[in-house]
Amino acid sequence: MQPRVSVCVPLFQKVDYIGRTIDSVLAQTFTDFELVILDNASTDGSAAVVDAYDDPRVRVVRHTETVPMIANFNAAVAATRAPLVKVLNADDLVEPEALARQVAVMDAEPDVAVVSSRHHLVDDRDRVVARDRTLRTPDLVGRQDRATVVRRVVRHGGNPLGVPGNMLFRRSAFDAVGGFPTEGDSFVIDVALAVRLTTVGDFYGVPETLSRFRLASASESGSARRHHLQAQRGFVRGLCREHADVVRRQDVVRGLARWPLTYLRHQMLMSAASDPDSRAHRVAARLLDPARRGRAGWR
């Protein structure tokens, strides 16, 4: 019997986290789902963790050889059977009400292609580094069209829409747009997919925190940070070209003016994750907490 929802987890070398990820999915209050785990030829013991689960909702698919990340994400979705799909990173978590809340939106809004939510950022020990990220402006809450979403991404300069675990999308819409884009950088595939999906349906933002995105404990190298930021800027420039019919000059100007804040926010997040017991962690968590911050400029 076909499930209503497929949660798919592209897995590669996440032995320390994959068990917690699976547990968070199996704890959903909405129960009509399958959990598809696509193991990208992991060699770190992840396969043994997955194989220890004896639950009929869990289905494991394996590559015999490791494939590129984006190809693995697309293959994970291709292995699903349900009309609604959530892609969850193998070290991230979903809150118990995530599927119930998002399926209700999809049932009520047949023209919505993707629904997203907010997320907490957590460290290796599942401690919250920053709360209620993404969807921090009114124009991303509720039902929104392509023009609104694209303009907000350009003005933001990063990803104001949500990470993969935040989103639930229609499989038909995913197939119609060709899945995750393979021509871009893997660092921006989440926001890139969300924007793609708005070309065939609307976006819906739920102002609730329904997932937890994990920050790596090890500090990124300076070159990696620069690469990620360059990927963001390159993606935004591409949006301006591809969606020139809706992007306005004022959106571009605001995005450029905001760029120093985007860079600083990224640096602070990495500092907060690098040493959970450090003063930098405490300061960053305080400044990145919207309840304490109260400034739209940081959103």
From TrEMBL:
Its EC number is 2.4.-.-. Signal peptide: none annotated. Residues 6-177 form the Glycosyltransferase 2-like domain. GO terms for molecular function: glycosyltransferase activity. It is an enzyme of class 2 (transferase). It comes from the Bacteria. SUPFAM superfamilies: Nucleotide-diphospho-sugar transferases (SSF53448). CDD domains: Glyco_tranf_GTA_type. The keyword ATP-binding does not apply. This is Glycosyltransferase family 2 protein.
